[in-house]
Amino acid sequence: MRVLLVVYDNDMYCHWFPQGMAYIAAALIQARHDVEIYSQDKHHYPEEHLTAYLDENKFDVICVGVIAGYYQYRKLLKISEAISKSKNRPFYVLGGHGPSPEPEYFLRKTQADAVVIGEGEVTIVELMDALFHRRPLYSVNGIAFRAAPSAPSWKEKIIINEKRPLIEDINSITFPAYHLFPMDYYRMLRMPHTENSDFVMPVLSGRGCSFKCSFCYRMDKGFRPRSNENIISEIKLLKGMYGITYIAFSDELLMSSSERTVSLCKDIIEAKLNIKWCCNGRLNFARPDVLYLMKQAGCVFINYGIESMDDEVLKNMNKVLTTDQIVRGIEATLDAGISPGFNIIFGNIGDNRETLRKGVNFLLEYDDGSQMRTIRPVTPYPGSPLYYHAIEKGLLKDCEDFYENKHINADLLSVNFTELSDDEFHRCLYEANNRLLDKYFKEKFYDLVEQSKKLYSEKNINFRGFRQS
């Protein structure tokens, strides 16, 4: 079958490589389907271009994957409208973290024909097989679908099939179909401590997470690591074919345990990959010996989910982390010569002005300026425990209320779990982020002044210009 995979425009200069779609593409190619990529993100095509492209080309199936962000949701509605306008409208499949927790809502809202729920490599191939052989779709586990696609939008029957088990051996999953994508574009992604000459690409070291924070919309339990050999093989492929020099490990938790992290770092060193890399980490695994080995293996940045500097709030969000562990872990990370990323959110159950003050003061004391860091309000994404808590408490009606009314911007309050009024809440965030931005830009200014001083007083011949600084 002929399949078009749409990578939507995220309104960015350089978009993150669409790993999920690339894995789906690889699975479809392996099953001998004809796959094409529509790169709206690179070319910034308007939606009318997609309609015209579908009118001029015949595809059997079109697939769109989307996360649960406010911008992405509204973009999806526009793309769905463009697909529906085509005189050659293909069978329309949705996937990703956005539709998976609430497939019925997304099917009705977008008029898509099916949703692949959760992990998609096996499911999409079985769905294609069912479509090709005209078998009933209720035979395909892991999907939801519209049983009467010709009926008016809100009257048709939605069927949600049995959940598909996770792929146990993730080393058996084919590498992403990199060759189908404009890699010269994606490898220009910038990450902390990239040089102008670096080429960047994300890699998954595993799938899932061993923890279940209240704000996380991940539906599946547990962590499934890839083997070190499998990971290193993919990195070698990226280095050899695309000149990649910096790997951004994009899974939720490369540091799933100290033992696993040590093992992977030793094998990266032994393989002599000579790369820089960053990852997401847990501060309860941030031991000095582990961090020094990570540094030896090329790690330059660890993105930590701190979320709060108040122990009661951390407990409320089921973070399984204490403020003492956070401080020790951040200090050990800095001592190892690795930059830490500070993710702090405000508005969780138990948050107030004092808990926000603690978070801001912590950032001001420890942030090394490798990234601009601000504090955002917590968002109860569909599928997260916090989402169902909000519905139970009457703070949120349903999925439509979340997407259409509440979640209008990631930096604005969607649901207020605090005792502050909405105006007080935003005032607190305004004042907090002003302090953080003031420090960040002052340090950048002082750094430029020092470069200028070194240039003119020491005649620094390696200086490349202030615009390159």
TrEMBL record:
Keywords, A to Z, come to: Iron, Iron-sulfur, Metal-binding, Methyltransferase, S-adenosyl-L-methionine, Transferase
| Entries under PROSITE patterns matching the protein | B12_BINDING, RADICAL_SAM
Instruction: Give one Pfam family, short name only.
Output: B12-binding
Query: Which GO molecular function annotation, any one, does this entry have?
Result: metal ion binding
- Domain B12-binding per the UniProt entry, residue ranges: 1-138
Q: Which cofactor does it need?
A: [4Fe-4S] cluster
Residue span(s) of domain Radical SAM core: 195-416
Q: What PANTHER family does this protein map onto?
A: ANAEROBIC MAGNESIUM-PROTOPORPHYRIN IX MONOMETHYL ESTER CYCLASE-RELATED, BLL1977 PROTEIN
* Protein name per its UniProtKB record: Putative radical SAM superfamily protein
